[in-house]
Specification:
Elements: H1 6-17, E1 39-40, H2 41-46, E2 51-52, E3 54-61, E4 64-68, H3 71-79, H4 81-84, H5 93-97, E5 105-112, E6 115-119, H6 124-130, H7 132-148
Antiparallel strand pairs: 1-2, 3-4, 5-6
Length: about 150
């Protein structure tokens, strides 16, 4: 037992905590990424702003876990994940267009043409709004390769 490092202990505790959600929720697999830093993707559409989700209401889609603020939001997402899931599995759209996976700031976002895009910083939103077509096209070209590099 002495050979266990603090990091191993903390990692095991965090992994175990992921399974404490509702019995009806799809629990994330240990090591599986939680998109949007745990913010509820449905809230961007319904509340018009990001709202923190809970591990109690979890749903896995495209090898990524999403957290929701309520069972109702989880059910909405489960019924239409393509409608609510952020583009590029919730990685920063601008960075994906540059060939890099970068986690977003959940407060930096845009719903454009009915799709949720997130960005690594708030300053990126105006840039995306000015160059939407080019960014989305380039990100779309890069995404298959980046997605495969899990």
């Amino acid at each position: 037992m002495r050979d266990l490092s603090r990091r191993s202990f903390v990692s095991a505790a965090v992994a175990g905590a992921c399974y404490c959600g509702s019995a009806t929720a799809q629990s994330p697999i240990a090591g599986e990424r939680v998109a949007l830093r745990g913010y509820d993707p449905v809230s961007y559409f319904t509340a018009g702003k990001p709202e923190k989700g809970s591990s109690e209401f979890t749903f896995a889609f495209d090898d990524t876990s999403y957290w929701f603020k309520s069972a109702e939001h989880r059910a909405q997402f489960a019924a239409e994940p393509e409608r609510y899931a952020p583009q590029f599995d919730g990685y920063c759209a601008i960075q994906v267009s540059r060939g890099v996976k970068a986690e977003p700031d959940p407060e930096a976002w845009s719903i454009t043409n009915g799709k949720l895009y997130v960005f690594s910083e708030k300053m990126a939103v105006p840039m995306f709004q000015r160059q939407t077509t080019g960014i989305v096209e380039k990100a779309g070209e890069n995404w298959p390769k980046l997605r495969a590099a899990r």
